[in-house]
């Protein structure tokens, strides 16, 4: 975790400290992402990434619902509920989870198999459920801060769109709709959350809590990629029951 704070930070100093954590720990630095974006993975490895990442997508609206259940401020709930709608969809808006399934469809994975999470790595499930649990157990300002990894997401989404399109003949623009949509949603969400955290984390304990929340969240993302790397790159240790590209279930 982070070094203990010794004095209360100004809002600008708090933002700097948060950005430093992201700079040092965000998963854009992970070797698995370098392989993915650089075109160094094969079809089965990209399938494994999309299949496991579905678990993260599916957990996001659940963690946002958990957060909303802790919020007494009606204005904040009104703002936050948009995130659930963005992922689950509403009316004619299909939502982010559906757009993610368009990606896994394009990679030849059956929807039932993806949604069942049966082929997910154990560590993926542990990591994403730890995120839901973290948000359910911490005070709202700390829970809000855990989404601040999104400050750094637009850059990685842009890199991913370009990298996947350029490097893999099995990827086309249609299956990347998820990331294109996030290019406008993530900055809106991250700016709101950053402003909220800067205004509401005013004590030493609250500021320590939000810094630790961002570190925790970077670890949630990093651990998922460590697990993918160990199972599908090296040493290639696929856990029992997890998706095996050499024996596709569908
Ligand atoms: O592709 C990525 O690297 C990435 C990272 C993150 C993130 O930083 O947590 C999110 C997303 N994508 C994303 O698409 C998304 O909807 C999202 C929601 C959240 C959150 O914590 O509420 N993070 C992320």
Automatic annotation (TrEMBL):
Source organism, top-level taxon: Bacteria
Gene: pqqC
UniProt GO molecular function: pyrroloquinoline-quinone synthase activity
Classification lineage: Bacteria, Pseudomonadati, Pseudomonadota, Betaproteobacteria, Neisseriales
Record family assignment: Belongs to the PqqC family.
Catalytic activity from the UniProt record: 6-(2-amino-2-carboxyethyl)-7,8-dioxo-1,2,3,4,7,8-hexahydroquinoline-2,4-dicarboxylate + 3 O2 = pyrroloquinoline quinone + 2 H2O2 + 2 H2O + H(+)
Name of the top EC class for this enzyme: oxidoreductase
Pfam families per the UniProt record, alphabetical: TENA_THI-4
Record keyword Oxidoreductase present: yes
Function: Ring cyclization and eight-electron oxidation of 3a-(2-amino-2-carboxyethyl)-4,5-dioxo-4,5,6,7,8,9-hexahydroquinoline-7,9-dicarboxylic-acid to PQQ.
Domain Thiaminase-2/PQQC: residue ranges: 16-226
EC number: 1.3.3.11
Keyword Oxidoreductase: yes
NCBIfam families hit by this protein: PQQ_syn_pqqC
Involved pathway(s): Cofactor biosynthesis; pyrroloquinoline quinone biosynthesis
Alphabetized InterPro entries for the sequence: Haem_Oase-like_multi-hlx, PqqC, PqqC-like, Thiaminase-2/PQQC
UniProt protein name: Pyrroloquinoline-quinone synthase
Assigned keywords, A-Z: Oxidoreductase, PQQ biosynthesis
Any one GO biological process: pyrroloquinoline quinone biosynthetic process
